[in-house]
Write a structure and sequence with these properties.
Layout lengths: L18 E5 L3 H12 L3 E5 L5 H8 L4 E3 L12 E6 L4 H13 L9 E4 L12 E5 L2 E5 L6 H15 L8
Parallel strand pairs: 1-2, 1-4, 2-3, 4-5
Antiparallel strand pairs: 6-7
Length: about 170
């Protein structure tokens, strides 16, 4: 018998060279952009404002920044992943709806994430720990990012100072 879980099916997406759109330039948007940069994605940020770190990434041309409020016409056709993380649940919902409507057919797998409502998302982000060539992830399926972050910190503290030859 198969055990089932509401946590979904865990995968690591290859984003190298793929287009990612992040709508929202606050602290959450910054975390999403940094993770996508580590995955070597091409990133477009859509937000009238941005954290100083995001503004610097745009100035260095590491990301494209459309510095205005989100509009439905902002979503490019080639976006593999769209993340809505504004401070407005309504805007986040609209971004997800627009991205889903832009899917060209049943084989278009554009993934969308509403940071304010995991039930409206195709995926949940995971807390990541990179240690000694290994990627460790912690997920609550989006139900409690704070709990995932706490568990990540506990695991990272346990790993600190350890090497693969001692584990």
């Amino acid at each position: 018998m198969c055990e089932t879980s509401d946590l979904g099916y865990p995968v690591v997406l290859s984003m190298r060279g793929r287009h990612a759109v992040v709508v929202g330039g606050g602290a959450v948007g910054e975390r999403k952009v940094r993770a996508l940069l580590r995955a070597e994605a091409r990133i477009t940020l859509i937000s009238p404002t941005a954290t100083p770190a995001l503004a610097a990434l745009a100035e260095d041309r590491r990301i494209a920044w459309r510095s205005h409020r989100y509009a439905s016409c902002d979503l490019p056709d080639d976006a593999a992943i769209v993340i809505a993380c504004t401070d407005s649940r309504r805007t986040n919902r609209q971004v997800c709806e627009d991205a889903r409507l832009r899917r060209s057919d049943a084989t278009d797998w554009r993934l969308v994430n509403d940071a304010s409502d995991p039930t409206y998302s195709d995926f949940a982000n995971v807390a990541q720990i990179r240690h000694d060539g290994t990627l460790i992830t912690v997920s609550t399926g989006g139900s409690s990012p704070a709990r995932a972050r706490s568990m990540k910190q506990r695991i990272a503290a346990w790993l600190e100072g350890r090497t693969s030859s001692r584990t």
